[in-house]
Specification:
Elements lengths: L1 E6 L3 H10 L2 E7 L11 E4 L4 H7 L4 E4 L4 H11 L6 E2 L4 E2 L4 E2 L4 E2 L4 E2 L4 E2 L4 E2 L4 E2 L4 E2 L4 E2 L4 E2 L4 E2 L4 E2 L4 E2 L4 E2 L4 E2 L4 E2 L8 E3 L5 E3 L1
Parallel strand pairs: 1-2, 1-4, 2-3, 5-8, 6-9, 7-10, 8-11, 9-12, 10-13, 11-14, 12-15, 13-16, 14-17, 15-18, 16-19, 17-20, 18-21, 20-22
Antiparallel strand pairs: 22-23
């Protein structure tokens, strides 16, 4: 069994790893030492990685944290120790591509010619339709819908239940609020909410 640690505390990822099999969960790495870890050991903070790795030399990392900028930073920090995890209850078209270090949860659908970047997080029951492109380190929250030919640039966050209409572009670092319906392009770094999602927050 391959030892694995989860960065940060994320119980859905615990369930995912246990459903995949082949791994022994050694514990959590998290910035908050008082985090609730239940039956799992608290291994330390991210900056303790060298000592954690010396104790468990073949330890792998499941990059569970949602925040896209943190995913980008930690992807570089943990490097080749990060694993790609796909639920057997997800559908990924053989004509789609999923980047290294990504997490694809149960109920996710990735349709033909979709491209998922490195270290993306596709949460429970989200859908990426045909020819969509999801940039590196982006997160799709549960139930979000990315329709055909959408482009989501790097480090974007799409909230739970949000819908991105066909051919829209979500700019780098943008945030789409939960339940929003995006019908036009979203500028890099913008935060949009509402139906339609035309209100931008600072």
């Amino acid at each position: 069994m391959q030892p694995i640690a989860i960065v940060s505390v994320e119980w859905d990822v615990v369930d995912l790893i246990e459903s995949i099999g082949g791994y022994t969960i050694m514990g959590f790495v998290d910035a908050a030492p008082d985090c609730a870890v239940g039956e799992f050991r608290y291994l330390g903070r991210d900056d303790a990685w060298s000592s954690i790795r010396s104790e468990i030399p073949d330890l792998k990392i499941a990059l569970a944290i949602d925040h896209p900028a943190a995913r980008a930073r930690l992807f570089k920090h943990y490097g080749s120790a990060i694993v790609t995890l796909h639920s057997s209850a997800a559908y990924i078209s053989p004509r789609a591509a999923v980047g290294e270090g990504s997490i694809v949860q149960r109920g996710v659908t990735v349709m033909p010619n979709a491209q998922i970047g490195a270290a993306c997080k596709l949460n429970v029951n989200c859908t990426v339709h045909h020819d969509a492109k999801i940039g590196d380190f982006s997160t799709l929250a549960p139930g979000s819908q990315v329709l055909g030919n959408v482009t989501i640039e790097e480090r974007a966050y799409v909230g739970a239940g949000a819908v991105i209409r066909q051919r829209c572009r979500i700019g780098e670092g943008a945030v789409v609020g939960a339940g929003a319906v995006v019908v036009e392009d979203v500028a890099p770094g913008a935060v949009v909410v509402g139906v339609p999602a035309n209100r931008r927050l600072k």
